[in-house]
């Protein structure tokens, strides 16, 4: 877990941090996530929340104890104490120690989440534009179209699918063609803005759970911002190699997905009706665009 407090908590409670989080609804955190980096953030959140609850219950206990122990019993004033040096030292030093410990582990987790490796296993260029995504699989880091070996581009009719392997380091290099967007997969417990121009936001993750997950733009970027979805498909390294080989051989994203036994189109989200074209209501009525 990497957290001393979480380790102590585990020993005292007889269960893991993950079990404790599940037992209490993750204390408001969405889930444990699908990346190694997300797990570190989750453990920090659970440990911090439990530490806050321990401090809270201790303070509440002292308040109620004082209310009961020193409640008014007559008209005589109790003994007046000007100060208690040991007590003042205790309630000054203790908060400082708590903040120092929380700051220490927060700095460690933040450093690990932002850490970049020298030789990532995979490099994906994320290109955002109004209002969709392009994912370029690269054979090296940095700019340059010659490094792209396969590409997936979304449209208003087809949700773009980003296929990635579990257990391998994935480096994302983000850029935008127009305005600021934001690359966000909620299950990663992490998002990063996508800037236009020469600013390339870079981060790395390591997925550890296969499955399909919805990705979104988390930065208000214009009229069809809400329609700017994509789907992340996490597969085994073997299937990822087969998928990439199929793409390099000229197969489409849908053909390559079928070749590795996956559904060819997005299953967790679908294209939104943008009103830019005619559409059909559930009742069967057809309405012209713009009405």
UniProtKB/TrEMBL annotation:
Alphabetic keyword roster: Copper, Electron transport, Membrane, Metal-binding, Respiratory chain, Translocase, Transmembrane, Transmembrane helix, Transport
Location in the cell: Cell membrane; Membrane
TM region positions: 44-68, 89-108
Broad enzyme group: translocase
Cofactors: Cu cation
Cofactor binding mode and count: Binds a copper A center.
GO biological process, alphabetically ordered: ATP synthesis coupled electron transport
Topology term for the membrane: Multi-pass membrane protein
EC number: 7.1.1.9
Domain Cytochrome oxidase subunit II copper A binding: 119-246
CC per GO annotation: plasma membrane
Catalytic activity: 4 Fe(II)-[cytochrome c] + O2 + 8 H(+)(in) = 4 Fe(III)-[cytochrome c] + 2 H2O + 4 H(+)(out)
Record InterPro entries: CcO_II, CcO_II-like_C, Copper_CuA, Cupredoxin, Cyt_c_oxidase_su2, Cyt_c_oxidase_su2_TM_dom, Cyt_c_oxidase_su2_TM_sf
GO MF annotations in UniProt: copper ion binding; cytochrome-c oxidase activity; oxidoreductase activity
Family: Belongs to the cytochrome c oxidase subunit 2 family.
Record's function text: Subunits I and II form the functional core of the enzyme complex. Electrons originating in cytochrome c are transferred via heme a and Cu(A) to the binuclear center formed by heme a3 and Cu(B).
UniProt name for this protein: Cytochrome c oxidase subunit 2
Organism of origin: Actinoplanes utahensis
């Amino acid at each position: 877990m990497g957290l001393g407090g979480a380790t102590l908590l585990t020993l005292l409670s007889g269960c893991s941090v993950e079990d404790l989080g599940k037992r209490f609804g993750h204390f408001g955190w969405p889930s444990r996530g699908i990346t190694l980096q997300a797990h570190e953030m989750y453990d920090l959140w659970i440990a911090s929340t439990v530490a806050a609850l321990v401090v809270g219950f201790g303070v509440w206990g002292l308040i109620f104890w004082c209310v009961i122990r020193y409640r008014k019993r007559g008209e005589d004033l109790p003994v007046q104490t000007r100060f208690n040096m040991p007590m003042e030292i205790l309630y000054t030093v203790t908060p400082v120690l708590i903040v120092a410990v929380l700051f220490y582990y927060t700095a460690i987790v933040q450093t690990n989440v932002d850490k970049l490796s020298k030789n990532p296993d995979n490099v994906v260029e994320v290109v955002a534009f109004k209002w969709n995504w392009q994912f370029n699989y690269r054979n090296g880091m940095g700019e340059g179209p010659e490094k792209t070996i396969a590409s997936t581009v979304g449209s208003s009719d087809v949700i773009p699918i980003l296929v990635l392997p579990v257990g391998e380091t994935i480096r994302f290099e983000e850029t935008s063609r127009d305005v600021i967007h934001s690359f966000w997969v909620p299950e990663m417990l992490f998002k990063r803005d996508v800037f236009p121009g020469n600013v390339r936001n870079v981060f790395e993750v390591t997925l550890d759970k296969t499955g399909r997950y919805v990705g979104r733009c988390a930065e208000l970027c214009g009229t069809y911002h809400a329609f700017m979805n994509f789907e992340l498909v996490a597969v085994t390294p073997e299937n990822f190699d087969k998928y990439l080989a199929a793409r390099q051989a000229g197969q489409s994203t849908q053909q390559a997905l079928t070749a590795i036994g996956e559904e060819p189109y997005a299953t967790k989200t679908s294209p939104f009706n943008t009103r830019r074209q005619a559409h059909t209501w559930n009742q069967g009525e057809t309405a012209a665009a713009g009405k």
